[in-house]
């Protein structure tokens, strides 16, 4: 039911050419020939949409209609179901998707027709998501992230699991500058997260331990009050319930999300597989990671593990926060090794770090070399943020009224939207100006050497395999 690492390469796509579909509707090629012709989503999409419409009707207006009698409720539910069947079936029939040259073409809509033709050079990431029900039915949802903000996401729901995998491989091949019939790229195992380590790391955090302790104290206080007065104190329940909900969100949620976590490296990018109730396969193509953050909570340092997060181009808003974690729990050495894989030719360990001139530990340290802009800050939770010069959008030096009196400034390297904001505070103003000028010069030189992330498979500097 869950995503497992492949044991062999996918077979080559068939070589027969499918004719283009006529104007009246898409021609249905064979199931495996997803790189040619036009296709529709799986027919099971129609009954699923009808079921959803009926459930929403029964949950909202159905409770009011029930007062008129069961017969009226049954009659109106039947009418809603018939209307939903007609609308969903026509919408499904008039919707299609397909690959045309190196463009993804999507037609959708019944009352208001919409056609999108997207060059795959803008492709930022491809995710295959399988909620629990879809796993049971053998279906999957394909999510294509493009450069373009909130309007840059395309969702194809639902496809068979095999077709979603083949379409994902075809999209990545086109985006890399290869043929859509190119066999699925091989991959090399990078890291599999043991369940025991995940369980221990999530529990071994100050917020979780503090919440558990406070919850136990509240329950003990409530039990003592009940034993002395004979009645239960409502205030205990009012404090214990939010704590319990917070624990479920902060502990149980990540535990279920990242169970069976597996990461691998491939010529078409970083592949992540994880989840039980919503199995997910995420592929981030080369060059789409804009910045990396390595987080070391104070208790995790004893375990020697870190969390690796990233700003990924294309993800915005809630989708960015939902997909920013690359490795939820990983040994420190592998966390820094992944940063080197994501930014080829760099080595964070060789970047010399300089503490702030103010001498305060909380101001952290800064390191700049020919490839990287690196900041480190935090005492309770140490955070190391890594931005390659080729991904820096702008450089900023900020001096507020109080900072001016102290003679210090903050230097920040801006990247595309995400949780990472690489900043170094407490730098002397003269030093900050030199840092901005020097980093800008490094950035100009790095961008002249780089051809950009598009068509990564046809560039001369494309890696053939990880070390």
From TrEMBL:
The keyword DNA repair does not apply. Residues 92-170, 266-315, 369-435 form the YdbS-like PH domain. It comes from the Bacteria. Keywords: Membrane, Transmembrane, Transmembrane helix. Residues 1-36, 437-467 are annotated as: Disordered. Coiled coil: none annotated. It comes from Streptomonospora alba. This is YdbS-like PH domain-containing protein. The chain crosses the membrane at residues 46-66, 72-93, 202-225, 231-252. Residues 8-23 have a biased composition (Pro residues).
């Amino acid at each position: 039911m869950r995503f497992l690492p492949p044991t062999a390469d996918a077979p080559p796509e068939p070589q027969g050419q499918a004719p283009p579909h006529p104007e009246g509707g898409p021609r249905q090629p064979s199931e495996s020939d997803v790189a040619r012709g036009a296709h529709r989503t799986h027919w099971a999409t129609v009954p699923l949409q009808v079921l959803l419409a009926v459930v929403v009707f029964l949950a909202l207006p159905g409770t009011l209609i029930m007062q008129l009698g069961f017969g009226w409720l049954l009659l109106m539910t039947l009418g809603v179901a018939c209307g939903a069947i007609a609308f969903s079936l026509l919408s499904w029939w008039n919707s299609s998707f397909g690959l045309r040259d190196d463009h993804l073409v999507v037609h959708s809509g019944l009352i208001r027709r919409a056609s999108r033709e997207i060059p795959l050079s803008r492709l930022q990431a491809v995710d295959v998501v399988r909620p629990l029900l879809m796993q049971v039915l053998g279906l999957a949802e394909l999510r294509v992230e493009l450069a373009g903000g909130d309007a840059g996401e395309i969702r194809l729901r639902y496809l068979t699991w095999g077709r979603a995998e083949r379409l994902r491989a075809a999209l990545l091949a086109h985006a890399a500058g290869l043929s859509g019939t190119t066999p699925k790229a091989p991959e090399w195992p990078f890291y599999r997260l043991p369940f025991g380590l995940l369980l221990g790391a999530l529990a071994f955090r100050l917020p979780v331990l503090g919440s558990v302790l406070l919850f136990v104290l509240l329950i003990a206080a409530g039990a003592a009050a009940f034993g002395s007065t004979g009645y239960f104190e409502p205030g205990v329940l009012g404090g214990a319930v939010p704590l319990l909900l917070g624990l479920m969100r902060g502990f149980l949620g990540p535990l279920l999300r990242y169970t069976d976590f597996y990461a691998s490296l491939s010529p078409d990018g970083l592949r992540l597989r994880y989840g039980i109730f919503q199995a997910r396969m995420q592929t981030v193509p080369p060059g789409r990671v804009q910045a990396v953050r390595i987080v070391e909570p104070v208790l995790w340092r004893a375990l020697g593990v870190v969390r690796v997060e990233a700003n990924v181009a294309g993800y915005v808003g809630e989708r960015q926060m939902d997909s920013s974690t690359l490795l939820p729990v990983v040994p420190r050495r592998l966390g820094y090794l992944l940063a080197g894989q994501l930014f080829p030719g760099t080595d964070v360990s060789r970047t010399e770090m300089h503490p702030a001139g103010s001498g305060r530990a909380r101001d952290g340290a800064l390191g700049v070399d020919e490839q990287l802009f690196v900041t480190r800050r935090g005492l309770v939770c140490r955070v190391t943020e890594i931005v390659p010069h080729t991904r820096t959008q702008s450089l900023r030096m900020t001096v507020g009224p109080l900072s001016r009196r102290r003679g210090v400034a903050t230097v920040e390297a801006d990247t595309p939207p995400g949780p990472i904001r690489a900043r170094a505070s407490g730098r002397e103003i003269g030093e900050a100006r030199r840092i901005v000028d020097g980093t800008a010069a490094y950035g100009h030189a790095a961008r002249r050497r780089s051809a950009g992330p598009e068509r990564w498979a046809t560039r001369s500097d494309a890696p053939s395999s990880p070390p």
